[in-house]
């Protein structure tokens, strides 16, 4: 499933745009990373992109059809959104949380059927959390909960997944688990994946394309290796940065090394 943002502009206060003339795209099987300093508009971009906030100018299109022309009930069968992991208000079992992903296919008073349960179980298998079945979401780790939320998103059988900082607050191992899962979903399941992340290293590792917000309505979009250069990131984050590449067992691993703060 493809997504395109075309000349998007948004202001919370008239005459003071947070985002101006934003354009980028994501194609099936691609991972696109959105990066930028705090306050640059990353979360606002996600909200506008998904229709939670209205574009002042420009538009979002899904598979060539403008977002405003989609029925919301149909749209959420094709798109899933994964928020940052938070402890749920109720102690759902993991499989019940994942079953919530079937909501777009159920009526107001309908209960999940056998097919819905089978799809939810496959989603848990894809996310590598079948072993968590029967456990309460309030009694698992933050990394496990993040994977449960990803499985919930997969249960809607989307073509496009949008994730808000899916690896934030996780330890090294669980960050890697999430990153490898997202890359595998894009490559093996053909999903289009868009992530908002604070970690340039993570974007360099899994993202095919990156969108870098500078603030002051400046932005860049393109292949990750050409966007997340030391010069571009230095300008965006006001930090002297070196990008190193290590080759281990024939695999190249780029690493971002922050050297020193730059004068404002």
Describe the protein.
The longest helix has 17 residues. This protein has nine helices and twelve strands. Helix 4 packs across helix 5. The model has no long low-confidence stretch (mean pLDDT 91). The chain is 31% helix and 31% strand. By secondary structure, it is α/β, with parallel strands linked by helices.
Report, as a whole number of angstroms, the end-to-end distance: 41 Å
Q: What spatial form do the alpha-carbon principal axes imply?
A: globular
Could you name the ranges where pLDDT drops below 50 across 5 or more consecutive residues? none
Strand order of the largest sheet: 6-7-8-3-9-10
How is this structure best summarized?
The protein has helices spanning 42-49, 72-78, 94-99, 114-126, 142-154, 172-188, 200-206, 224-227, 230-237, and strands at residues 3-13, 16-26, 31-35, 57-62, 65-66, 79-82, 160-164, 192-196, 209-215, 218-223, 239-248, 251-261. It has 264 residues and is of the alpha/beta class. The strands form three sheets. The protein has a six-stranded mixed sheet with strand order 6-7-8-3-9-10, sandwiched between helices. Strands 2-1-4-5 form a four-stranded antiparallel sheet, with helices on one face.
Architecture blueprint of SSEs:
Elements (H helix, E strand, L loop, with lengths): L2 E11 L2 E11 L4 E5 L6 H8 L7 E6 L2 E2 L5 H7 E4 L11 H6 L14 H13 L15 H13 L5 E5 L7 H17 L3 E5 L3 H7 L2 E7 L2 E6 H4 L2 H8 L1 E10 L2 E11 L3
Parallel strand pairs: 3-8, 3-9, 6-7, 7-8
Antiparallel strand pairs: 1-2, 1-4, 4-5, 9-10, 11-12
Helix pairs in contact: 4-5
């Amino acid at each position: 499933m493809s997504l395109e943002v075309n000349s998007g502009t948004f202001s919370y206060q008239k005459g003071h745009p947070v985002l101006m003339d934003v354009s980028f795209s994501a194609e099936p099987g691609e991972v696109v990373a959105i990066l930028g300093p705090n306050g640059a508009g990353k979360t606002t971009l996600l909200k506008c992109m998904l229709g939670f906030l209205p574009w002042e100018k420009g538009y979002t299109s899904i598979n060539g059809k403008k977002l405003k022309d989609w029925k919301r009930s149909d749209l959420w069968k094709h798109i899933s959104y994964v928020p940052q992991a938070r402890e749920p208000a109720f102690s759902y079992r993991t499989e019940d949380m994942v079953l919530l992903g079937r909501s777009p296919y159920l009526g107001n008073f309908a209960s999940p059927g056998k097919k819905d349960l089978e799809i939810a179980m496959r989603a848990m298998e894809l996310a590598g959390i079948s072993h968590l079945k029967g456990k309460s979401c309030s009694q698992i780790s933050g990394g496990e909960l993040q994977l449960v939320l990803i499985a919930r998103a997969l249960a809607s059988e989307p073509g496009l997944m949008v994730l808000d900082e899916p690896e934030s607050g996780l330890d090294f191992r669980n960050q890697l688990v999430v990153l490898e899962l997202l890359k595998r979903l894009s490559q093996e399941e053909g999903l289009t994946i868009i992530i908002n992340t604070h970690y340039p290293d993570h974007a360099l590792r899994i993202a095919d394309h990156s969108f870098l917000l500078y603030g002051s309505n400046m932005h860049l979009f393109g292949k990750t290796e050409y966007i997340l250069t030391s010069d571009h990131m230095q300008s965006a984050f006001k930090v002297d940065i070196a990008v190193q590449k290590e080759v281990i067992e024939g695999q190249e691993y780029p690493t971002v090394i922050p050297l020193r703060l730059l004068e404002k």
